[in-house]
Design a protein that fits this description.
This protein has twelve helices and six strands. By secondary structure, it is an alpha/beta fold. It folds into two domains: 141 residues, Response regulator (Rossmann fold, 3-Layer(aba) Sandwich); 68 residues, Orthogonal Bundle (Arc Repressor Mutant, subunit A), CATH 1.10.10.10. The protein is globular, with a radius of gyration of 18 Å.
């Protein structure tokens, strides 16, 4: 089942430069990522920051499309930073690139509103793939993180039966959400009102026991309702 939206988009994002800001406390990692990503087609590394405080200082001068963010030992502080960034700069998409990959950290960070999560233990090509997918409005977890997320949610034990209670309309909506479309676009595609879209999303979130669009997409993928994009 697929939908073609008649949107008034001005450009194809894959043909535009993807502006990136790197946040990592390690200077070697910052330089390494900068050196690697600046040579990739359509990638423009605007700047680097060593801390959340420096990140917000950099954002006063230029706004990236994507922030690549490394978690610190203060995970709760990182979650506050992510939520603050999302609130102040909703157009900026966040990809976590970190060594912190335990089940609880993955679960709590995904809930905070990120668009991608890649382990530093994974091949660097997963990060490059994440950047391209997230820039198109999609979501991405690499295979290591996907496994951790499944373990953290207890998905197969607790939620599988509930997912199959989703209606055809809810499946249509979660498919469009997975493609990165906003409520207004979904309403136009399905010829329904935005308030109806919000009503269905509330039902979807309740059935999946999630609080964000990314979590909903991930859960639907695990159930086979949507094709997986994380491999």
């Amino acid at each position: 089942m697929s939908f073609k939206l008649k949107l008034h988009a001005n450009h194809n994002v894959t043909e535009m430069e993807i502006r990136i800001l790197i946040v990592d406390s390690c200077a070697a990692v910052r330089f390494g990522l900068w050196a690697l990503l600046k040579n990739k087609e359509n990638f423009q590394v605007l700047d680097c920051a060593s801390s959340s405080r420096e990140l917000f200082q950099k954002l006063e001068n230029s706004t990236p499309d994507i922030v690549i963010y490394d978690l610190t030992y203060n995970v709760s502080g990182d979650e506050r930073t992510i939520k603050k960034l999302s609130a102040r700069y909703p157009e900026v998409k966040i990809i976590i690139y970190t060594s912190f990959c335990n089940e609880q950290t993955v679960y709590e960070t995904v809930k905070s509103g990120i668009r991608g999560y890649v382990s530093k233990k994974s091949d660097i090509n997963y990060l490059i793939k994440a950047i391209r997918m997230v820039s198109r409005g999609e979501y991405y977890l690499d295979p290591i993180i996907t496994s951790k997320f499944i373990q953290a949610t207890g998905f197969f034990d607790k939620r599988k039966d509930l997912l199959f209670e989703m209606t055809e309309r809810e499946i249509q909506i979660i498919q469009l959400v997975s493609e990165g479309h906003r409520n207004k676009n979904i309403a136009e595609a399905l010829s329904i009102s935005e308030s109806t879209v919000k009503y269905h999303l509330k039902s979807i979130f309740s059935k999946l026991s999630v609080t964000s669009r990314m979590e909903a997409v991930l859960e639907a993928e695990k159930a086979g309702i949507l094709p997986s994009k994380v491999s």
